[in-house]
């Protein structure tokens, strides 16, 4: 791990975390916060973007396949933007509060939609560029 890699992860994480704060808050204020919609939107959109970037890396190579881009975009920005820890805590809090069905829905929706989004992002880019 080099200083340059650490700086790129730090920079990407800084901007990804700020964007997560705004997107999650915006969604929460618009839809409500009784269900963690903001976290769901952040994680699904992040999965879509990382899938698309992975598709670019595979189809185009070049900068998208480089270590610097990976450190900045994948590890830093998208690592700071998406949030598994918040998803897990929100799901646990729903369960603790006796909201078993919303807790289960959050787990199923988040996992299923994120996997579908990463696949959709990846395959749409690979197919368009192939």
From TrEMBL:
Keyword Transport recorded: yes
Places the protein is found: Cell membrane
Record comment: activity regulation: Na(+) is not transported, but it plays an essential structural role and its presence is essential for fluoride channel function.
Keyword Transmembrane: yes
Annotated organism of origin: Bradyrhizobium lablabi
Membrane-spanning parts: 7-28, 40-60, 72-96, 108-129
Family membership: Belongs to the fluoride channel Fluc/FEX (TC 1.A.43) family.
Location (main, coarse): membrane
Source taxon at top rank: Bacteria
Functional description taken from the UniProt entry: Fluoride-specific ion channel. Important for reducing fluoride concentration in the cell, thus reducing its toxicity.
Catalytic activity: fluoride(in) = fluoride(out)
Keywords assigned: Cell inner membrane, Cell membrane, Ion channel, Ion transport, Membrane, Metal-binding, Sodium, Transmembrane, Transmembrane helix, Transport
InterPro entries linked: FluC
Pfam families: CRCB
Membrane topology: Multi-pass membrane protein
A Gene Ontology molecular function term of the record: metal ion binding
Any one GO cellular component localisation term in the record: plasma membrane
Binding site for Na(+): 79, 82
Record protein name field: Fluoride-specific ion channel FluC
HAMAP family: FluC
């Amino acid at each position: 791990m080099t200083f340059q890699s650490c700086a790129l992860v730090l920079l990407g994480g800084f901007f990804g975390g700020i964007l997560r704060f705004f997107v999650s808050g915006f969604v929460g204020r618009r839809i409500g916060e009784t269900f963690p919609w903001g976290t769901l939107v952040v994680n699904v959109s992040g999965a879509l973007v990382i899938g698309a970037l992975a598709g670019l890396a595979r189809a185009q190579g070049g900068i998208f396949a480089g270590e610097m881009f990976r450190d900045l975009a994948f590890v830093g920005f998208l690592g700071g933007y998406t949030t598994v820890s918040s998803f897990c805590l929100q799901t646990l809090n729903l369960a603790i509060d006796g909201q078993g069905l919303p807790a289960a829905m959050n787990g199923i929706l988040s996992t299923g939609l994120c996997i579908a989004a990463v696949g959709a992002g990846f395959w749409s880019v690979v197919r368009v560029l192939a």
